[in-house]
Write a structure and sequence with these properties.
alpha/beta, six-stranded mixed sheet, globular, disordered N terminus
Amino acid sequence: MRKGTAVLAIVLVFMVLLSGCISSDGTTETSTSPTSTSSTPTGAIDFGSYEKGQVLAEWYKIAGEVSKVYVSEGYEDLARHYFPNAQILPAKDYDGGVAILSPADGREVLRGKPILITVNDYFGYIIYKLGIKFVGKDKGIFAVFNQDGKAYYVFTGTSKAGVGAALEYAMELKNGGSVRTDDVLRMGDFEGVVVKVIGDNDWNGIPDEGEHWYLSSFKTMEPFIYYWRVVDGENVTVKGGFISLVNGSTVYIHALGFNVSVEVKDSKGVELTYVVENINPAVIQLPQGAETGETWVKLTTSSDSFSLVPKDLGDYKIIAFGDHRSDGGTEVPEVFLKIRDGINNEDAVFVIDGGDLVYSGTVDQWAALLKEWKWNKPVFVAPGNHEYRGEGINVYHQLFGPTDYSFALGDYYYIFMNNIENDYRLSDEQWAWLQDELERAKEMGKRPVMIMHAPPVDPRPGEDHGMDPSDGKRLLELMREYNAFGIFSHIHMFWNGTIDGVHFIVTGAAGAPLYAAPDEGGFDHYTRLFMAADGSIEVEPVKVES
């Protein structure tokens, strides 16, 4: 009997070896079938047996039943929610298998991996993926890799919300969801994806009653939802600004003008708090019960709608400037700080920033700028070609929202547009939108003011540092037809004049290298604009010594 049993065991082992389920060195491998479930949570994975994205898509089959999870302190509730039957072990003992890790612990485990966590002194924990950094506490990482002959299944992120986003994403895959392979990073025995959650209002990493999560993986460009959230079960829609943050029952709105409205569809009467930022309360008709600060209005209400609308203004003053990026590196130009302080001492209603805020859009450059981004007036921005690139595009949208927007104030209609993204041209959709906006201004009896980074043409003789010539010509024709005034930057100088019957200024010297001699406009400055009720505009540059 013993001899027969031994022979049978040898035959069974031989058959298994032939099937490819066990390697000759005794380690567990996946079979060539993409639906193999032969790996255990700690056995190494044969990544070559899976197409890109399949390791993540079938992680629950490869890992098998998860009986234990290594968890960072304070994240045990995530483990109980997503792996209710698993034993919870401390993250300090993690050496393979499934782990739910805080940003600090995730940083250590993913050190040297193609997707990892690092720290910025302004943004805090950020994700680094093949040379691109992603900021914000709404990011998660789901990564599977081999190390020391074992399989690691790691759920981590930039915050507890990010970690929960990674877990929720994995559970959606388990329940039949699909992987967008373009979003997946596969390098050798590593496969990972970055995900973003919108709607985790209490930032606890678990979808709660009264929340509506939007969860998505992405490759380089983050998804954004500007105008809508579900907050405590209420369906909140915003116009005239974008929702920059929800924290519990508080909705933060970044104003994109002076007419901001909120509507709660099918309201249940839940009391919410709204903080409208980047606004000038002095020129706003305030709702009853509103609190105010220099650049914000706060209102707690259960109403199904409310609006902030501007007062009737006659003459008023605004400030414009642009191109305060450095000539390289992260350091903010000293002259920009002087210009900022000068602008803060002005009695203007608002400020226009014509773009080129940082040198090349890196997260570190943004961090350096934001430490000095201290204003006592609302600032409305047009994107410049230097910051609106690479990882800087995501940061821009997180801070300033959409790039094409408009608002009316007094007798003027301000139109901001992105004319650098499409190689200094406007898309067909942008031209159609602009035409509609100009018609709206005409119907309202207000003079249009166009704000873009690059001017339609370079006013310097023989120079060409403006828009694409055909698009620039088309823009000038529209501006002339609608009597629009233009505010541009991009060329590092001050210029004020008329070309082809169109009055516009270039105010593009606030720290960037100068493009002209001082007597030709090559000096650091900001610009005062006196907006008269009769449609006339007085322009006054203010020189600032560097």
